[in-house]
Amino acid sequence: MRALIAAGGRATRLRPISHTLNKHLLPLANKPMLEYAIIKLVEAGITEIIINVNLGDVEISSRIGDGSRYGAQITYLEQQGGALGIAHAVNNARAYLSGEPFVFYLGDNVMAGSIKTLRHTYESEGYNAMIALARVKDPNRFGVPEFDITGKLVRAHEKPENPSSPFAITGLYFFDDKFFEAFKTMKPSARGEYEITDIITWFIQNARIGTQEITGWWKDTGTPDALLEGNALLLDEMHVSEMKNEGELKPGASIQGKVCIGRGTVIGPEVLVRGPVIIGENCKIDHAYIGPYTSIGDGVLIQGPEIEHSIIMENAKIFCSERITDSIIGAKAAVNSSKNTMPRGHRLVLGDNSLVEL
Fold it and tell me: Are 268 and 286 in contact (CB under 8 A)?
């Protein structure tokens, strides 16, 4: 079995962060989110992986490599024809996937647990397709399955105003070669995309399709709030054995709970770090509080603030005495105190779709 990971798209809901970094490389617990999909696939014994990327994209292949460090063989495939929907992205990989069952995995989805049981169910039941489901509070944001009174899957709807069930169709699908037969019958939707829900409906009508609910949590990290929640869930899931302190603690520094500190990092006096927290390499933190569910990338300098439930990307500099929560601070960004400059006031340089609370 091979796998296709979707890692293209424009990520408009994550701008301005995604203006300069492909969203699939955004860090969650200090790993690019795309790594979590690769690791799940390899754990399930799927090591031949194709990654669908935007036309001309070399950023992902430069960061992820040929897959050898994950125990996989990775091929990169540029999306032809533009953003025409995720079903179109699968059809774009037809030459790699035809003739055998395959997994299709959206690279911005993260989840708990293993996908081994999903693969086992798909193969043992002899399905032509299988979709993974998750209970969510806002199914209207996703593809939604519709069941009849006997519990039989009868249709799939894309972002319905009035969802017919409390389930979201997650970004994990199993298909056989009939996918490409189905795609030949597809037409673009009203928004100009080839919808995966139309493919699912074709399988309902013409083949054997199964569903299985994901146990544990699942998160589509397509918005800033969802990205922060995914980061928190992954930090919670990290085992104590992974939380190593390879940095230097100065007298007066205090570490509480699950905290991982990278090599070359110095935690100065009057610093309290309360986990779960992960701090990268070669950081320097002085006179600060780093609270739960915070991820700090490599080379970050922090002095003075309280930070909680946030993602701080590599080489950012934060010099202020404010409290920072629920925030994403991009690579090489600077947060300084307005008290240190004249005239007094808040100086802002904001890109499109930025959010600031003063």
Answer: yes
